Amino acid sequence: MYRQVILxxxxxxxxxxxxxxxxxxxxxxxxxxxxxxxxxDIPDEWSNEKNHAWSVIIPGSGYxxxxxxxxxxxxxxxxxDKEEDKAPRGMRAESTKYVVGDTTYDWRVHCISxxxxxxxxxxxxxxxxxxxxxxxxxxxxxxxxVSDGKCVYFYFSQVGLFAFSLDGMPLWKADPGTYxxxxxxxxxxxxxxxxxxxxxxxxxxxxxxxxxxxxxxxxEVWRTNRDEITSxxxxxxxxxxxxxxxxxxxxxxxxxxxPTTGKLLWELGGMSKLTVPVPVADDNYCYxxxxxxxxxxxxxxxxxxxxxxxxxxLPKGSHQNSYVHWHNPLGAPYVPSPLIYKGNLxxxxxxxxxxxxxxxxxxxxxxxxxxPKGGNFTASPVASRDKIIILSEEGLAYVLDAGDKFHIRQxxxxxxxxGLFLATPAIAGRSLLLRGAKTLHCVREGAK
Length: 448
Description:
It is a single chain. This protein has a single domain (2-444), classed as Methylamine Dehydrogenase, Chain H, CATH 2.130.10.10. The longest helix is centred in the first third of the chain and has 21 residues, at 2-22. By secondary structure, the chain is mainly beta. Strand 8 (151-156) and strand 9 (160-165) form a beta hairpin. Strands 1-3-4-5-6 form a five-stranded antiparallel sheet. It is 5% helix and 38% strand. The protein is built from one helix and 34 strands.
């Protein structure tokens, strides 16, 4: 009898763990920053009349992506005391500069029920005027939260790093500092965690750095200053066959650090002038990309082998060395991060173009394809159960077949007319979460 009870408890624990894993999208781009959740079962088709479970208005503005832990959704916003101008669409808006004015913001963190969209709790972490400016297409709440399953960590470059329990109890706060960014464009790099430390990449025009903070206390564990300028990429924890590496991409160089000590492991030159996409990895290689929109000659993707050390930059005209597996000089996107799925590397370009590349060579598997109905793309693609979901800024949601042929299953209409969809979607169980400028939407099979 005692043995049967133990077995039942172990079985229940296994089921609970499986359910927890299925409902986990704990950081920007989900599990391991991959953008993939094959445990999910989301529909191909949706609209306001079909498979639309709920919508909830999020006060203020914020382009942070939602994360999911169990049945809780976490995201952020910054609420101004006066109405803001509507953010522009398209990449060409980058020429506009925003200057800090007299607007006061209420920086908030939100916890929302995955089941029905009800607000479980929300907390204000700071009220005041911004210290630095931002691009009109950026927000003061663009960094996506991260969770280790026990707590949730929110980072705002203007006001600090905050830890909360999943039930909304404030645990600690830290102030890593606020710095000038290129042309006052603002920031977007999100925190990541390995369960022991929270890592920040803060590239700016004053003193760029990467740093680690203890998850229990918020105490700074290490900080490594960088000879860098502003970037908008999120650091990537690469757990490869040889060691763990914290990989960063910035205009001067891509670099990897020891997550325990902050020691520089390797560096790679040849990046584009503006860097936004986040690295991705499979079992064998890490893929680094950056492609400024106006740079027609240098939009590189690099495939990197584990275990590199020192300067692994390629000589001019070369496409590989001992640690650079391959180099595609013109394959990278500007803003959306690439996606590894079902043995291929998928790239969404900001003009409505789509690439499917070989993981082994970096070459196109089929010709570059145009996504119909035009539009602009900032959100990164995500994938589940043989389909790829691509969300345009206008809210059009493309559902594509994963594989060696370009095929669109469905193009779904925007779920709100006033939305600006810059946040990357999140997947949890049967739910797909799409965040617009003011509203968070949940798509779920069978919902009305």
